[in-house]
Design brief:
Chain lengths: 330, 339
């Protein structure tokens, strides 16, 4: 079977007064059915923009400049706005990083779940009264599913009446209300405390198995990826620099950036040893020269890196964008 | 713990009293009191890093600020060397602040957007009369700026012209220019990306060694504390529930809350092999904290007794203290789940 989502050569640019920002520059990503794919990268690496592009959520001054977006065999870029709207929220759902700003503060949680069902659920009864009852029943069921106690009364409350962890659950509930085939979770736990983070991530993992959906987990935390994802994609400055099975990428990272990222995570086992931070900062995405994007910060750069670098195979399903792989590993 | 700690905090409390409307006052509605920090005691030795961990709302930042009297403590005593900080008047406190500094979490909110780097970093010199003429101030600012990794041609820029990591360097320079002995680091790396976070951590550790600094390092990131702290204190709802050397507290936690916290930390190394202690519910509201042991509402080991009596702090080994009623039974939540 082909991949559920296939992104090929995606380019998303933002036209600003200072110049064209190539936020996503030639990204290839495949999401298989039922898998959990982790997408890691620092701010500005293009991870959120990539999936906003998939969802058709990139707004002016941004636009998709090229590439192919195939979801379940359908070309997302050729869909009309109405067709895309039918698909979005029903087959692909996305949760946003900041639940407080993503939820509508003026509508109750019940109203926000009902909205999704009204638009997408064709199985709802036609008569108004029955319809309302069916929506209510379904909403309670969904809130129970994501572990919100006293769902009946909670439906009538507003987002500000919930804690951070509960709000994130509500967003997941809204995203799951039409049983999507793909859930894109953009930094679902960044604003949360570790114990709540663990609850939310376990919930996502549990629901993935129960509903047989694919999950894309966008995060900057490699620990989260290690515990929850089958495969991982590492992004840097608008490009994929490494991808592969999670364990392999973490245990045998190939790209100097992935290595640097792993080496710079402080942890107890590294006590007393200096952590080796990656020097410098993410390059400016305006007027990127045609060279390896990690060139300015790389510890093993050479003259040959001053050219465009493509992804190379380094193992089963494991690829990295570095010309110095052979030398670096030996 | 040695006899002469640099900083000694005894029974420190910080309560915030809510306001009442006229109607509420007439109706006799009692004032609401948030006990952000209640009866906290600890010591920090010279040259040591004490890590302070806990979830948001547990009172760790309030504690850090109460120690410096940025928030006036409600009760308790803070001694710095031989000086009783809580008893100082405004003039002496200002002089004391030269020796006790703070680095803030948010490098966007903690720098005045209308002042240049030179003005921001030079301000402590002016306030404490450490330098008065412009040329000396600029020279000193340039020296510390260079040490924290800023370029001397950036001194006349404004904060918005810097990235998050660079701004945090400005905050560090400002804290260190008056040559303090003790610095409260209030989540200094939480707002930063991983690679930048590592740069700032390395910088803070280098500066600590060079300048013989002592840190109270507040973080919600247990991995960061595990990496850099000597001792760690775990806070829950305004109280320290466990404290001791990092190797003991984080590797073999005894309090059920610390155990659950440790099991929730996502780790890249032992992924897939570890069980999870599940906690019920969210942090209770500090407006109305549970009676007895404050953790009993979420604790898998809680008995009826825990809801009645506040547990005393006990020493379990050299320098390792825990406040839990069920300590004697030697139960571990971690044993049950890792099987």
């Amino acid at each position: 079977m082909s991949a559920l989502l296939s992104v090929k050569g995606l380019r998303t640019v933002f036209e600003t007064r200072a110049g064209i920002v190539r936020a996503v520059d030639g990204v290839d990503i495949e999401v298989e059915r039922g898998e959990c794919l982790g997408v890691v990268g620092e701010s500005g690496s293009g991870k959120s923009v990539t999936f906003s592009s998939v969802m058709g959520l990139v707004k002016s001054p941004g636009r998709i400049d090229g590439g192919e977006l195939l979801f379940d065999g359908r070309d997302l870029r050729s869909l009309s706005p109405q067709e895309l709207r039918n698909l979005r929220g029903k087959d692909i759902a996305m949760t946003m990083q900041d639940a407080l700003t993503a939820l509508n503060p003026a509508l109750t949680v019940g109203e926000q779940i009902a909205e999704v069902l009204e638009i997408h659920d064709a199985s709802l009864p036609a008569s108004r009264r029955e319809r309302r009852r069916a929506i209510r029943e379904r909403s309670v069921e969904i809130l129970n599913l994501v572990g919100i106690p006293a769902a009946e009364t909670r439906l009538g409350q507003y987002p500000h009446e919930f804690s951070g962890g509960m709000r994130q659950r509500i967003m997941i509930a809204i995203a799951l209300s039409c049983s999507p085939k793909l859930l894109i979770a953009d930094e679902p736990t960044t604003a949360l405390d570790v114990t709540i983070q663990a609850q939310v991530l376990e919930l996502i993992t549990e629901l993935r198995a129960k509903l047989n959906m694919s999950v894309v987990l966008i995060t900057h935390d490699l620990g989260v990826v290690a515990e929850h994802c089958d495969r991982v994609i590492v992004m840097y400055a608008g490009q994929v620099v490494e991808e592969g099975p999670t364990r392999e990428v973490i245990e045998k990272p190939q790209h100097p950036y992935t290595k640097g990222l792993l080496a710079s995570i402080p942890r107890m086992s590294l006590r007393g040893q200096p952590i080796r931070p990656i020097e410098g900062q993410v390059p400016d995405l305006i007027n990127m020269p045609a060279e390896c994007r990690f060139y300015s910060r790389c510890g093993v750069r050479k003259a040959v890196c001053k050219s465009l670098i493509s992804m190379r195979r380094v193992g089963v399903g494991h690829r990295a964008r570095c010309v110095r792989l052979e030398e670096a590993s030996s | 713990m040695t006899q002469n700690p640099l900083l000694r905090v005894e029974g420190l409390s910080k309560h915030y009293v809510g306001s009442r409307s006229l109607g509420q006052r007439i109706a006799g509605v009692p004032r609401t009191v948030v006990k952000a920090v209640s009866d906290v005691s600890f010591e920090i030795n010279k040259g040591e890093i004490l890590g302070l961990i806990g979830e948001s709302g547990c009172g760790k930042s309030t504690l850090g600020r109460a120690v410096l009297r940025l928030h006036e403590p409600t009760a308790g005593k803070v001694s710095f060397g031989d000086t009783d900080v809580t008893g100082l008047d405004a003039v002496d406190l200002k002089a004391m602040r030269r020796r006790m500094q703070i680095i803030f979490q948010d490098p966007y909110a903690s720098l005045n957007p209308r002042r240049t780097v030179n003005e921001i970093v030079g301000l402590p010199l002016r306030l404490h009369n450490l330098a008065t003429d412009e040329a000396t101030i600029r020279k000193k600012v340039a020296a510390i700026a260079e040490r924290v990794g800023l370029k001397s041609n950036q001194l006349d820029r404004y904060p918005h012209q810097f990235s998050g990591g660079q701004r945090q360097r400005i905050g560090i320079a400002r804290a260190l220019i008056s040559s303090p002995e003790f610095v409260v680091c209030d989540e200094p790396v939480s707002a930063l990306d991983v690679s930048i976070q590592a740069q700032i951590i390395e910088l803070l550790l280098e500066l600590k060694r060079e300048l013989a600094l002592t840190y109270l390092f507040i973080s919600h990131d247990i991995s960061v504390i595990g990496y850099l702290a000597d001792r760690v204190a775990v806070m829950y709802l305004g109280e320290i529930v466990e404290m001791g050397p990092v190797e003991k507290v984080l590797a073999a936690p005894r309090h059920p809350y610390t155990q659950s916290l440790m099991s929730a930390v996502p780790e890249i190394e032992r992924a897939g092999r570890k069980g999870r202690v599940r906690l019920k519910g969210d942090l209770p509201s500090p407006l109305n904290p549970p009676p007895g042991c404050k953790f009993h509402t979420r604790c898998p080991l809680a008995t009826e007794f825990c809801s009645k009596e506040r547990p005393e702090t006990q020493m379990v080994s050299e320098g390792h203290q825990v406040a839990c009623h069920r300590l004697g039974e030697n139960l571990s939540l971690l044993d049950g789940v890792s099987a």
